[in-house]
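Please describe what follows:
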Amino acid sequence: MRRSLPDWLAFIERQHPRPIALGLERVTEVLRRMKIRLQCPVITVGGTNGKGSTCAMLESILRAGGYRTGLYTSPHLVHYNERVRVAGVELDDLALCEAFAAVEQARGGIALTYFEFGTLAAFWIFSKQGIEAAILEVGLGGRLDAVNVLDPDCAILTSVGIDHVDYLGPDRESIGREKAGIFRAGRPAVIAEPDPPQSVMRAAGEKLLLGKEFGFTRQENQWTYWGPRGQRAGLAHPALRGSIQLRNAAAALCALDAIELAIAMQDVRRGLAEVTLPARFQVLPGRPQVILDVAHNVEAAQTLADNLLSSGYSSESIAVCGMLRDKDIAGVLHALAPRITRWHFASLPGPRGASAEELARNIDGAVEKFESPTQAFVAAKGRAEEGDKIVVFGSFLTVGEVMAWLQKNKTSKR
C-alpha cells in the first residue's frame, strides 16, 4: 500500500461510521495482534484543561535529563505530524505511513476510529524507537479512551471541568468518574484539580493530591515545588505563559517524583525554561499583538480572560472566534466578554461547526461575521492599530487555520 500521508489520513477517516466511538474492545484486540510492548515508564495525562501543557513540560524536563522520550498528543493544529514526537522531533510522513500500514495489516475486519488508528500507530512507533519514557495525552475522557489501553506507571489528572457532556455526562461527578478511569490500583495518581469530585476520590490508585502530597509556592520571580521526594527551590517560571502553568508544572514534577526518575535540578530548570507549546496563550512577536489560545470550554475561557487582564492595556481587543456547536458557546463567550471590545465571528465547516450567525446571537456589541477564521483574522489585522490586541480562540480548528495562514504569509514575504 503506497499511500501518501494525506491518502492515509483520508483512508483512516473512513474506516468507522462514527468519528467518535468510545470503548476499548477494538483497540485492545488490534494491540494484541500487533504485539506492542513498551519497555519504559508510561505517564498518561488526562483532564479537561492543562493536558497539553503538562505533557509538554514532562517531555522538556525528561529530555533535558537525557531521556529519549515518546510523546503522543492530540489534536493537531496544522499538521498531523505534530501528534507523534520521538526525542522532541515530530515524526516524518514516511514513518507515519509505515505505522499506519502496520495497523492496517493487523486490524483485519475491525473498524477503528480515526483516533484509535492513530493511537495504535503511535504506540507501534514508540515500540520500535527504543524510547525511555512515554508521555500519553488522553484524547477524550479517559476510561474508554484509546490511550487507556496501556497501563500507565503514573496517571495525572490536571482538572475536571464541564466539557464533552454528550460523551462524559452533564456534571463534574460523572465527568470526573470518566477521567479517573486512567488511574490504576496500586499505582500513583497525581491529582492537580484543586477541588476533585468524590468520583475521583473514590477511584483506584495511590492518590497524590495538590496541596497535600505536593504543591508549589509562588514567589515574585521564581517558585518552589514540594512533593514526595522533597522540594526544589529557586525555580524560574515555566516558559509557557499564564498563572495556571505553575500548577501544571507541579503536577509534572510530582509524577516524576512518583515514578522515581532521576532528574537533576539543573535539568528541571532547563526543561521548564525551554518548554514550548503552540496556542496556549501564545503571544506572537510584532504589533499589533496577536494571541493564540485554543480555549474552547468555560474553564479555559476564564483562564484566558484572566491572562488577558494581566497582559497589559490595549485600547481595542479584537476576538477572532470560531467554535463547534456542541460546546457551551454562551458560557465561553460570556466568560471573555469583559476583555473583548470587538468580535469577529467565523463559521467552522462540517456538521459540528457553528456558524458565525449562531455565535453572534450570544453577544451584544460590535460584531462582524465571516465565512472562515482566515477571513475573520485578515479583517482584524486590517482594522487593528499598533497598540491593539487580536485574540484568536474557540477551537483547535480556528487557531490551526490562522496559524497556517500566518506560516504561509510569512513564507510568501521572504
The two ends are 38 Å apart (CA to CA). The chain is about 40% helix and 15% strand. The chain has a mean pLDDT of 95.
